[in-house]
């Protein structure tokens, strides 16, 4: 049986390659601000650079008592001793990932519908991502799912849900109230002139949510 997972903060911090500062520095800012779940998502970088960043962030997360998830690269996650891996619909299949990683390694799955969420739960995911919730964000989403589909997914599965896509500090509380256990906020954070201050403000907004 896969391990149970409980997010250590309602803010699911994603260290994304779109950020204007290096990944390790961004992770340190997030952790110093109180974020306790970090995902490393680096696109189009050399594998060695990915490994070096993941290794350093693993140590930072261990020191802070935080959960560390690697996006896409289950090989790197296992190599550096991360807590888990997050897989998309077009990445390594969940069943194959579980065979490689074993039951203790957390595996999250990106989903975009109730059917995908139900399938992820049935096949042993530890948590799901759901979105995109709103327009905009790092992927410049033109059509968001909205809050109603998030509520439908919440009613369909028992797994923890990370909502993602165009979420800002101003909308984060409503996303939690709609059924998410945690929210990923990228653009609204990394585009801030004071990332640490914005991080703490987001955390407070989420703590104040229903």
What topology, given as strand order, has the largest sheet? 1-2-3-4-5-6-7-8
The proportion of residues forming helix, as a percent range, comes to 40-55%
Q: Enumerate how many helices there are, as a single number.
A: 9
The low-confidence parts are none
* CA-CA gap between termini: 31 Å
Mind describing the biggest β-sheet? 8 strands, parallel
Order of helices and strands: EHEHEHEHEHEHEHEHH
State the name of the first-level CATH class.
Alpha Beta
Structural class category: alpha/beta
Radius of gyration: 16 Å
> What would CATH call the homologous superfamily?
Aldolase class I
Shape: globular
Number of strands: 8
Task: Output mean pLDDT.
Answer: 93
- Which CATH architecture would you pick? Alpha-Beta Barrel
CATH fold title: TIM Barrel
- Number of separate domains: 1
Amount of beta strand = 15-25%
Report on this model:
The chain is α/β, with parallel strands linked by helices and 210 residues long. The protein has a single domain (12-208), classed as TIM Barrel. It is built from nine helices and eight strands. It has an eight-stranded parallel sheet, with helices on one face.
Top keywords for this entry?
single chain; 210 residues; alpha/beta; TIM Barrel; eight-stranded parallel β-sheet; 9 helices; 8 strands
